[in-house]
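Deliverable D4.2, example record:
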Amino acid sequence: MRKNTLFSVGLGGVLCLVMMVGCARSMALPDYGPLRSEVEQLYLNYHELKIIHSKLHAAARKHIEARGEQLAEIQSAARFIDQANLIAYYQWELLSIIEYIRVERRSDYFTLRVKDIDDARQKSRDLIMAVKVYDAFIRDPEALTLIAKGIGYIEQHIAVYDALQALMAPEANPPAAAPAGGWSETL
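Output generated by the structure prediction step:
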């Protein structure tokens, strides 16, 4: 009888272990490897740029009592840095939910994201140029250092966008072919 009980307990333990492993596998989130690390990098850069934006405003406040020339330039540069950062945050928000998109719909989702990432990249480049316009008129060394760091983070955003686009493009839907005679034939 004792031998039979040990066998039942052993078999029950193995069965319980198999069920726990099965449940753990079904509850684990999918791993998107490099895509996940790029998305996380966007989030980390976003927080670093928030700090730089805040410090830029503090640097601008030092110039309130002066004629306001430096104040306006520093605030404008800070505004453009913040706009680039909001673009990155928006991309992070949209890309951080990939694991919740149904597998059969991911190619559609990636198609939209690839186009949006391209737009984010171009807008970020334009914002760097806008920051550099104001940067030329700023004489405050602290503000110039912060602006240079901000531009560096925006450039990192752009590098992340490039990497994300390269990772998502193969998973996106292929572009639709235009009708043979053009659009006018179908109208």
